[in-house]
Design goal:
The protein is α/β, with parallel strands linked by helices and 454 residues long. The protein folds into three domains: 135 residues, Response regulator (Rossmann fold), CATH 3.40.50; 170 residues, Rossmann fold; 128 residues, Helicase, Ruva Protein, domain 3 (Orthogonal Bundle). It is built from 19 helices and 17 strands. The strands form five sheets. Strands 1-3-2-4-5-6 form a six-stranded mixed β-sheet, sandwiched between helices. A five-stranded parallel β-sheet has the order 8-11-14-7-15. The protein has a two-stranded antiparallel sheet with strand order 9-10. Helix 1 links the parallel strand 2 and strand 3.
């Protein structure tokens, strides 16, 4: 292997990996492309090149087609499976129209016949680099936009939610399985999506399956796929979610509802990274990052014998617990303002804040349905609200005494104080914006703040 790097790699035009079993060609191309300002590494075998991919992370790969042990087509396929997003230029002395077409279908940027002029290669490399740079920029913009949108939906400043966000940032870059726990409506799906979007696999879509929504016989086919004739109605082969999620993340919602036979099959995939379609003999590789969630107590299910302990530990490599809304009431004004603004915009209503009575009810209600229930309650209220700048209505179940659960040991004054301080934290201390959200006068909020300081 020959390594030729510019003295100032940060100024390099791009990183290029050359893969060819002719050492002389590797050396000459490395010298030429280095002189053009690129950072270049070469490998004289595809296997050596595959080992270099993580370390070097090339923008462009120049590869021969006919090489001992592993040909260029197979090398490109294995590189793609490893998650490489580089462009490819295929070099070969054995050209034909069919080979050229196959190379392009395999994902190559271009095809050049040996022997070639260096000027022709330079033009091809420059064009490929330009395309890769534009693609990277567009992906960066899209990813930034997507991440901003996802973060905007997961609202919370309570210390327990800050712990969740910190855990997400830590676990997103790795491949380890994640188990998200929490009551229904706490936002487990949003957290799973955020983990995926912050991961190296975010260029591919997150594939999700609700384990509680499908019968076990259907779920097996849904996850692993099936062969034609595997069962009545299987008129053609179908790829399962593990295949669809190759190189991406697979989110299994309500994992606690899996029956033990399916648990055993899932455990095998996690242990061996292999599976077969229903009715098939071909063993497929599972290049998948697994994220699971449940609202059940899996440790209690293990004690009851309904959930496998070994599967639990395979899933729970990293655990993320989302607290219920009643345990982080200080987030209610922030969440309420977020849902009000979005729903008012979508429904063309001029609403900007809440009446004092409505906010008190929001703060004291138990929220058994958690954030999802809060969102639906505000959307319901916005739709039925009269034309006004303040939300004054709520669904009936929030107005019934049975749904009201004032904070233990708290007076109305205590609840008001919590609402004011939480809202101020959510709007970066703006008493004017807090007044709009709470349906109070700015003067009253300023007066209350002076009282709290005494």
């Amino acid at each position: 292997m020959k390594l030729s790097n510019s003295e100032e790699p940060e100024l390099a035009r791009g990183r290029i990996l050359i893969v060819d079993d002719e050492p002389i060609l590797c050396t000459s191309l490395a010298e030429f492309l280095s002189a053009e300002g690129h950072s270049v590494t070469s490998a004289t075998s595809p296997y050596q090149a595959l080992q270099l991919l993580d370390e070097f992370d090339p923008d462009l790969i120049l590869t021969d087609l006919r090489m001992p042990g592993l040909d260029g087509f197979s090398f490109m396929e294995q590189a793609r499976r490893a998650g490489v997003s580089s462009g490819f230029i295929v070099m070969t002395a054995h050209s034909s129209v069919s080979r050229a077409v196959k190379a392009l279908k395999s994902g190559a940027e271009n095809f050049i016949e040996k022997p070639f002029r260096l000027a022709a290669l330079k033009e091809m490399v420059d064009n490929a680099m330009s395309r890769m740079r534009l693609l990277a920029e567009s992906r960066s913009v899209a990813t930034s936009r997507d991440r901003k949108e996802i973060f905007s939906q997961i609202v919370g400043r309570h210390p327990s939610m800050r712990e969740v966000f910190e855990m997400v940032r830590m676990v997103a870059p790795v491949r380890a399985s994640v188990l998200i726990t929490g009551e229904s409506g706490t936002g487990k799906g949003l957290v799973a999506n955020l983990i995926h979007q912050l991961s190296p696999r975010s260029e591919r879509p997150l594939i999700d399956v609700n384990c509680a929504a499908l019968a076990e016989s259907i779920l097996e086919s849904e996850l692993f796929g099936h062969e034609r004739g595997a069962f009545t109605g299987a008129i053609q082969r179908r790829e399962g979610r593990f295949t669809q999620a190759r190189g991406s993340s697979l989110y299994l919602d309500e994992i606690g509802d899996l029956r033990r036979p399916m648990q055993a099959k899932l455990l095998r995939v996690l242990q061996e990274k292999r599976y077969e379609r229903v009715g098939g003999n071909e063993t497929l590789e599972a290049d998948v990052r697994l994220i699971a969630s449940t609202n059940q107590d899996l440790e209690a299910a293990i004690e009851a014998g309904s959930f496998r302990e070994d599967l639990f530990y395979r899933l729970n490599v990293i655990g993320v617990h989302i607290p219920p809304l009643r345990q982080r009431r200080s987030d209610i004004p922030l969440l309420s303002a977020f849902f009000l603004e979005r729903s008012a915009r979508e429904n063309g209503k001029p609403l900007r804040g809440f009446s004092g009575e409505v906010m008190m009810r929001l703060m004291t209600y138990d929220w058994p349905g958690n954030v999802r229930e809060l969102q639906h309650a505000i959307e319901h209220a916005v739709i039925l609200s009269p034309e006004s700048s303040t939300l004054t209505r709520l669904p009936d179940q929030l107005l019934q005494d049975g749904g009201n659960s004032r904070l233990p040991g708290s007076t109305i004054r205590d609840i008001e104080r919590e609402a004011i301080l939480s809202t101020l934290a959510a709007v970066d201390g703006s008493t004017a914006r807090a007044a709009e959200v709470l349906g109070m006068s700015q003067r009253k909020i300023q007066y209350r703040l002076r009282e709290y300081e005494e």
